[in-house]
Write a structure and sequence with these properties.
Radius of gyration: 25 Å
Order of helices and strands: EEEEEEHHHHHHHHHHHHHHHHH
Largest sheet: 3 strands, antiparallel
Bound molecules: carboxymethyl coenzyme *A
Length: 431
């Protein structure tokens, strides 16, 4: 038996034999038949080979560099996971020390960047500020354009992982009209972020260890998710050899959209709209009648369960022990219980996804809804950079340039302005 597939063009009888490699065939194999493949939204097209993140949607499996997400969420920290994503292996003690030191000492922003952030309107969306500020960083580090130089690449990786939380926190403080809080190098990555967000007049901000851990776990869970919309943008911009700040600004812009980083916000609005456990049956009936979706349920890839959702639910319990129970949690729990027993959701394999509980946790931490996509962008920075590094160092990759199936007008002659007609309208020449 050969590892090939044979394709016959039934119009001509011409046949090609295309090799199967790692469960995929090369679309260029169709060239011999004068054909290309058409796959809007990449539903069944791999654009890269990758060693970073593995997902098996049917089995509900997510692994970073081979390590199950459950073990990382239990045992690791966000910074260690970021190292794993970037370097491919868990760090030794010395490596982790060096990495933590490097990230900690690159968290400050150039004062001019702070001024740039000051320039935004008082009600600017923090995600718009983040996208703009990350793009602006490239002007502070012009050497970042040397993307073929390994040392230069790694210097920008450290800067981005370190500075994105600072930008994120500054964008929040700006929207609140509060003074920006500078990073505190004595604090760990996640506690420092909370300090930059919430410190007021105290000499040193200290968060509850359980809350720091909960946020760190959320960061681990959101750190990468293989070739999703924003990772694809990161790689695509990177393929033109643009600097990583510009590429990451593009990736963050992709995340901004409600179909990607905005679903947790939609969950929160939905729960608030339901308002009371008693109104759940009526809401479920409306969803089943096609009058809306149960937000935070369903996933393009996970058809069994989203492994991140299970962990997030436990994290939510830990957070509510400290912050007190969010009244929306009762609605969410009851909604989940009913949906998981309902034939409509069971037959369509609709399970809670990562966004079902993350918004409730962010809210319990005191974050406004507009900050939710920003909270996603902070840890995803490591994933985007891992994807970018893999892309720019892959000898098989070239500038991303999809083909198209042209379905527009055939060749036609130019018509002078006075002779043009729109259907149903009189031309200027005869008016
Ligand atoms: N509520 C009710 N019905 C649903 C839902 C839902 N949340 N999701 C899918 N369905 C139904 C859909 O109506 C369709 O039914 P039918 O076969 O009768 O027409 C069937 O299930 C298949 O749906 P689909 O739209 O073809 O599935 P998809 O794989 O294209 O969509 C999805 C995946 C995540 C966009 C969708 O499930 C959805 O809109 N969920 C709600 C939004 C949400 O929670 N998004 C966050 C995704 S996780 C974030 C991340 O990992 O990046």
């Amino acid at each position: 038996m050969r590892d090939t597939v044979t394709i016959t063009d039934n119009r001509t009888g011409k046949t090609v034999e295309v090799p199967i490699d790692e469960g995929a065939i090369r679309a260029t194999g169709l060239k011999e038949l004068g054909l290309s493949s058409y796959d809007p939204a990449f539903l069944n097209t791999a654009s890269v080979t990758s060693r970073i993140t593995y997902i098996d949607g049917d089995a509900g499996i997510l692994r970073y560099r081979g390590y199950p997400i459950e073990q990382l969420a239990e045992e690791s920290t966000y910074l260690e996971t970021a190292y794993l994503l970037i370097h491919g292996e868990l760090p030794t003690q010395d490596e982790l020390y060096g990495w933590t030191h490097e990230i900690t000492h690159h968290t400050f922003l150039h004062e001019n960047l702070k001024e740039l952030m000051h320039g935004f309107r008082y009600d600017a969306h923090p995600m718009g500020m983040l996208v703009s500020a990350v793009a602006a960083l490239s002007t502070f580090y012009p050497e970042a354009s040397l993307v073929d130089d390994e040392a230069t690449r790694m210097a920008q990786v450290v800067r981005l992982i370190a500075k994105v939380p600072t930008i994120a926190a500054f964008s929040y403080r700006h929207s609140r009209g509060l003074p920006y809080v500078y990073p505190d190098n004595e604090l760990g990555f996640t506690e420092n972020f909370l300090s930059m967000m919430f410190r007021i007049a105290e000499p040193r901000y200290r968060a509850e260890p359980e809350l720091i851990r909960a946020l760190d776990v959320l960061f681990i869970l959101h750190a990468d998710h293989e070739q999703n919309c924003s990772a694809n943008v990161m790689r695509s911009i990177g393929s033109s050899k643009a600097d990583p700040y510009s590429a990451l600004a593009g990736a963050a812009a992709a995340l901004y959209g409600p179909l990607h980083g905005g679903a947790n916000e939609a969950v929160l609005k939905m729960l608030a709209e339901i308002g009371d456990v008693k109104r759940i049956p009526e809401f479920i009936a409306r969803v089943k009648a096609g009058e809306g979706r149960l937000m935070g349920f369903g996933h393009r890839v996970y058809k069994n369960y989203d492994p991140r959702a299970k962990i997030i639910k436990q994290t939510a319990d830990a957070v509510f022990e400290i912050t007190g129970r969010n009244r929306l949690l009762d609605i969410a729990l009851e909604l989940e219980k009913i949906a998981l027993e309902d034939e409509y959701f069971v037959t369509r394999k609709l399970y809670p996804n990562v966004d079902f509980y993350s918004g409730i946790i962010y809210q319990a931490l005191g974050l406004p809804i507009a900050m939710f996509p920003v909270m996603f962008a902070i840890p995803r920075t490591a994933g985007w950079l891992a994807q970018w590094l893999e892309g720019v160092t892959d000898p098989e990759q070239k500038i991303a340039r999809p083909r198209q199936v042209y379905v527009g007008a055939a060749e036609r002659d130019y018509v002078g302005l006075g002779y043009r007609r729109t259907p149903g309208a009189r031309s200027l020449a005869t008016a």
